[in-house]
């Protein structure tokens, strides 16, 4: 049985109203909205390599997620930065957050690994 045109119209209007009332998710790190067009990804609070496969994840802006992994090793994240509050309290991330909070919600820019971390990864001669 085919629904009537009126029923379809009412259902579409209800769906549009529900969609308009939905708020975009909020990035727990920078506290800016994550609009549908923004790049985002899931961050394992405890890195998977350190036993966090089935522990919590949070949706972050991609730039926020990249900033975390550009600054800290998996071991350091597991040891002392396995929560949003501990990440926010870190001076390097705090500086980044002060900068990114002034940007529009869909802002994205490439993130480079810090010089110090890059130097630590280089093979020594």
Structure description:
This is Restriction endonuclease. Residues 41-57 have a biased composition (Basic residues). Keywords: Endonuclease, Hydrolase, Nuclease. One of its GO terms (molecular function) is endonuclease activity. Helix 2 (62-71) packs antiparallel against helix 5. With 125 residues, the protein is mainly alpha-helical. It starts with a helix and ends with a helix. The mean pLDDT is 86. The longest helix is centred in the first third of the chain and has 17 residues, at 5-21. It is built from six helices and two strands, in the order αββααααα. It has helices at residues 5-21, 62-71, 74-80, 84-89, 91-100, 115-121; strands at residues 40-44, 57-61.
Walk me through the topology.
Elements (H helix, E strand, L loop, with lengths): L4 H17 L18 E5 L12 E5 H10 L2 H7 L3 H6 L1 H10 L14 H7 L4
Antiparallel strand pairs: 1-2
Organism: Devosia oryzisoli
GO molecular function: endonuclease activity
Keywords: Endonuclease, Hydrolase, Nuclease
In brief:
This is Restriction endonuclease. With 125 residues, the chain is mainly alpha-helical.
List keywords for this structure.
single chain; mainly alpha; 46% helix; elongated
């Amino acid at each position: 049985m085919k629904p009537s045109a009126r029923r379809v119209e009412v259902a579409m209007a209800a769906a549009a109203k529900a969609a308009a009332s939905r708020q975009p998710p909020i990035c727990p790190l920078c506290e800016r909205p994550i609009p549908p067009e923004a790049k985002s990804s899931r961050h394992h609070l405890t890195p998977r390599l350190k036993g966090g496969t089935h522990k919590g994840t949070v949706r972050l802006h991609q730039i926020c997620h990249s900033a975390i992994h550009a600054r800290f090793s998996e071991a350091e994240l597991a040891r002392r930065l396995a929560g949003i509050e501990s990440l926010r309290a870190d001076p390097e991330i705090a500086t980044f957050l002060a900068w990114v909070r002034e940007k529009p919600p869909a802002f994205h820019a490439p993130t480079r690994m810090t010089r110090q971390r890059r130097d630590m990864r280089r093979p020594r001669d």
